[in-house]
Amino acid sequence: MGNELTDQIVDLLRAQPNLSAPEIAEALAEPGVNRSVVNRLLYAEWAIFEQVGSMAPPRWALKNYPPPGRPDAPTQVPAPPTEASHREQLSLRAWQRRALSEWTRNGRKGIVEGVGSTGKTVLGVQAVIEAVSANTPAVVCVADEVVRAQWLDELAELAPDCRVAGLGSNPRQGVERTWQVAIVTASTVARLRQIASPTQCSNALLVVDDLDRYGGGVFAQLLTDQFTSRLALTRALDRDDQAVRSRLLPYFGPAIAGCDYPTAHAQALLGPITVIQVGVELDAKERARLTHLDSLVDREYDTLVDSYGAPGKPAEFQTFVDVLATGRGSGAHHANRYLTAVADRATLLAECRAKTDLIGALPAEILTETQSIIFTERPVSASQVHHALTARGIPAATTATTLTAAQRTAIIEGLRDRSLAVLVEQRVLDPTIPVPGAEIAVLLARHRNHTQLIQRLGRVLRPGKSNRKQLVLNVFVAGSVEDPSRDGASLETSVGPLAAETVRTDPAGLITFLRTWHGLTPRAGARSEALRARGGHHLSAPQSGPKPQQPAAPKSAQTPMPESVAEPARFQQAPRPSVSGSAPGPATAPGSVPTAAPAPTTVSEPVPRPEPAAEAAAPHNSVLVGGSDSQGEEIAELLTELTRLGQIATGEEVGDLIGYTDPGDLRILAESAARDEQLVFAEIGGDSDDLLLLGTAPHTDLQRMRAAATRITVWANSSEDPIGAMYELMSDLDGISVPPHRLVQIAAFLRGTTPKALL
């Protein structure tokens, strides 16, 4: 192909000289021939082609070929371009010049922060060009081959004389270095010692692109003293991360403010977006559990600050608690209780039923005709959302499970050719899978910090003009800690003026807004059905059989307007029975989304989701003898969870699972179950009002079971070496079956440590 392509370019430049590489590639219009291919051939064939002038990007003509209209004019061969001329060709943006100047003043050390699609790579290329012009070797580390190709393209266009080290062969030891720049990836960084040994490459420049995409193994091989100039590039630096504070900042130097979203807006680098805040409600059981977890978090926070001296500033408090939790004693106990309660609350909010139902109610035609990324908390919630989409025929994929190379390639190709419409990601992002046409970002799980939010938005927000603004949908539980009215580090604070419009609404109002944004009319339903007839794109198995119908959208809902103008319409969820047996109805919480004036009631049925088979999992003694029907249901639920935990648990463990917020209420329930000989319990003792619960079996010696429960609590609380004393404990239990791993978990919990630390 090389000779044939060379001949085609010669013919093209003979007829039309002074073309750039992108213009040549566009004029040839050959499959597989892009700017990179053309650039490599032009630079390789210096005997045939030459650069004309000093424009950027470089323009090319044939050597010793007179320009059109002047057949007798002698050809002036320009001098080979110098690195200085290439620096002049590279036009830096204002923020890039400022950041590069600060990096130079810092002794050519620092970490530059810049949100996605604003030019971090160009800044890094400029630093490399300046190093090469000063005869300083440069090593660049990038995440993958895609980013490496981008760097090679930029260097080929802006510094064509730059000699780049190849990675395909082993260099000979003792031979003088011939390259000026080496570009390695995370998977080839192990070859760095061969390519750039300290003897051949000292006092060099190290550039690490996308600093947030590497693990400790890469840094162990990369962060060496042979690099005296150090530049790291990242979307956002997590200053609360221990590795950042202890390793990256000391090595690279201070963080340098580059380009945040307000700067990107001011310099017209990114287009405006619309932020939509969507409030949903918890059901009665979820609300009771949230109340309990909120109370537990507040109580443990106060204890850690008042009794153990934890600092009040959030970042310092978190560091203090993380360190305290690794120790032993009562302080570690409270620290672990706090961390566990915070994590459980985040999971509850991220995976509540209303959020999954919302995804199931979004118009399929809009999701199918656009591209979206949905961010969840854990793999299980990502899988639930993915199932809700594919069950309706919406082509979607998820990164929640470990992907094979073939599956990853299928996702990338599907997103590129738009046969895939939605990518569902968990908290740990996979930036190696680009979503080029993404217009909608849906945040189902609250971002843990500003850094995570910037990384998420960087997957969606890109430069370029569009007929409609990109959408960022933040779905939150009304009245909870993730409610924007309570969240100090809100989404609007991070994106700043980039958010040209902010709308607060509920699910029904969101659907109306999306239809208006997408430009659909009520008659577009037929087109929607035709689109959905394509079938869902599922990586594990193709979708087959009839597709379930899309849930009906509300027939009457107000079009949401900016928060200061209009109130949102309501989204009526199908009522679910209360745990306590009270009458069903929507839960109302402080800080919930305001309701509009009464309007015709419309119900949007949630996507059907199978309920857990509680009766199948219930223990043998789930038939109740005494107590009210509601208490009988609650006891059955307690016994079900106790069975799932191996027939041994603390009262707090079970209470968290069934939504009991008060230890006294749980004790009443346990006493009722004990009277019916369905379990036995023992006091934990000390300053705790918790209980140890043991499930019973038919014809059990209850007195012996109570003695076993007491023996376990004494061992868990008082044994100097609980692991060493487990053999004696199991001997004392003598036939009472208790899972050993549960004993270790309970002992660790009561001692304020982790099972791993206890072992």
TrEMBL record:
<dbReference type="InterPro" id="IPR050615">
    <property type="entry name" value="ATP-dep_DNA_Helicase"/>
</dbReference>
<keyword id="KW-0378">Hydrolase</keyword>
<dbReference type="InterPro" id="IPR001650">
    <property type="entry name" value="Helicase_C-like"/>
</dbReference>
<keyword id="KW-0547">Nucleotide-binding</keyword>
<feature type="compositionally biased region" description="Low complexity">
    <location>
        <begin position="540"/>
        <end position="558"/>
    </location>
</feature>
<keyword id="KW-0347">Helicase</keyword>
<dbReference type="InterPro" id="IPR027417">
    <property type="entry name" value="P-loop_NTPase"/>
</dbReference>
<feature type="region of interest" description="Disordered">
    <location>
        <begin position="63"/>
        <end position="84"/>
    </location>
</feature>
<feature type="compositionally biased region" description="Pro residues">
    <location>
        <begin position="65"/>
        <end position="81"/>
    </location>
</feature>
<feature type="domain" description="Helicase C-terminal">
    <location>
        <begin position="354"/>
        <end position="511"/>
    </location>
</feature>
<dbReference type="Pfam" id="PF00271">
    <property type="entry name" value="Helicase_C"/>
</dbReference>
<feature type="region of interest" description="Disordered">
    <location>
        <begin position="532"/>
        <end position="628"/>
    </location>
</feature>
<keyword id="KW-0067">ATP-binding</keyword>
<protein>
    <recommendedName>
        <fullName>Helicase C-terminal domain-containing protein</fullName>
    </recommendedName>
</protein>
